[in-house]
Design a protein that fits this description.
This protein is an all-beta fold and about 140 residues long. About 0% of the residues lie in helices and about 50% in strands.
Length: about 140
């Protein structure tokens, strides 16, 4: 199951520090950012049988839905879907375990999502895509 690794912040007269001391970044091999074209656009469903992903909103906020896949060749469209909201005013990190698909939608214009993966680009062939309306909860 996906889980939120809670971040926090500290502020004083100098400014603010956002941190996540509970997140172990040791497995991360690659990072990149996603910025959707608009708040109406939903990026998904895309998943990975082997790869783990971690997401953190670095500007704005996002709704991320996660479907755990039961069969990669013919997944059940009625699987349970988890839903998380990530906001940039926290440094919460959402761990999406392998065996999952995600649907990502920005909640505010110009929102930016940091994505971390435990595999380098091209290291494995592990990308699966399904239509936006494939999974129904």
């Amino acid at each position: 199951m996906a889980e939120i690794i809670k971040g926090s912040q500290f502020a004083d007269q100098r400014g603010a520090i956002f941190y996540n001391n509970a997140f172990d970044a040791a497995p991360v091999k690659r990072i990149y950012c996603i910025e959707n074209q608009s708040v109406e656009f939903t990026r998904g469903w895309q998943g990975h049988q082997i790869e783990n992903r971690w997401f953190s909103a670095i500007f704005g906020s996002f709704v991320i839905k996660i479907a755990i896949i039961d069969d990669w060749e013919n997944p059940n469209p009625k699987v349970k879907i988890q839903e998380f909201v990530l906001q940039a005013n926290k440094l919460d990190i959402l761990h999406v375990p392998n065996g999952s698909c995600t649907s990502i939608q920005a909640r505010e214009p110009n929102s930016r999502l940091l994505v971390m993966s435990d595999y380098l680009l091209g290291e494995i062939q592990d990308e699966y895509r399904f239509p936006k309306d494939y999974f129904i909860s």
